[in-house]
């Protein structure tokens, strides 16, 4: 996804190109850095992934993921950090109760 190698020391996982919840349990997977995998799921719903983002090239070119990919390409291959959910996927802010 990001163009960096995935060394054995890096956190990584398999991404189902068609989400398991949308019938992709036996479908093709790709190995990604965990931070890249997290960024995908922080930005897109399962329905959106299944409907239009079932190919790595399509994901890579999506405007929502492009800034992350541009940033992560400059990091070491085993870099990992926490991933924040995209504002478009966050629920309403919860206020403090009095």
SSE string, helices as H and strands as E: EEHHHH
| Total of helices | 4
Strand content: 5-15%
Shape: globular
Mean pLDDT level: 87
Q: Output the radius of gyration.
A: 15 Å
Q: Which quaternary structure do these chains form?
A: single chain
Helix % is 25-40%
Given helix and strand content, the structural type is alpha+beta
Largest sheet: 2 strands, antiparallel
The counted number of beta strands is 2
Distance between the termini: 46 Å
Strand order of the largest sheet: 1-2
Low-confidence stretches: 93-98
Protein architecture, described:
With 98 residues, this protein is of the alpha+beta class. Helices cover 31% and strands 10% of the residues. It has 4 helices and 2 strands; from the N terminus they run ββαααα. It is globular. The C terminus is likely disordered.
List keywords for this structure.
alpha+beta; two-stranded antiparallel sheet; 31% helix
Task: List strands and helices in order, with pairings.
Blueprint: E1 12-16, E2 29-33, H1 34-43, H2 46-52, H3 56-61, H4 66-72
Antiparallel strand pairs: 1-2
Characterize this entry briefly.
With 98 residues, the chain is of the alpha+beta class. 31% of the residues lie in helices and 10% in strands.
């Amino acid at each position: 996804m990001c163009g960096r190698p995935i060394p054995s020391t890096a956190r990584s996982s398999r991404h189902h190109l068609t989400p398991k919840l949308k019938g992709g349990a036996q479908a093709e997977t790709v190995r990604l850095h965990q931070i890249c995998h997290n960024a995908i799921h922080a930005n897109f719903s399962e329905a959106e992934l299944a409907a239009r983002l079932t190919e790595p090239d399509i994901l890579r070119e999506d405007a929502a993921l492009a800034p992350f990919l541009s940033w992560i390409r400059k990091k070491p291959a085993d870099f990992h950090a926490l991933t924040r959910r995209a504002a478009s996927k966050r629920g309403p802010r919860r206020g403090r109760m009095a």
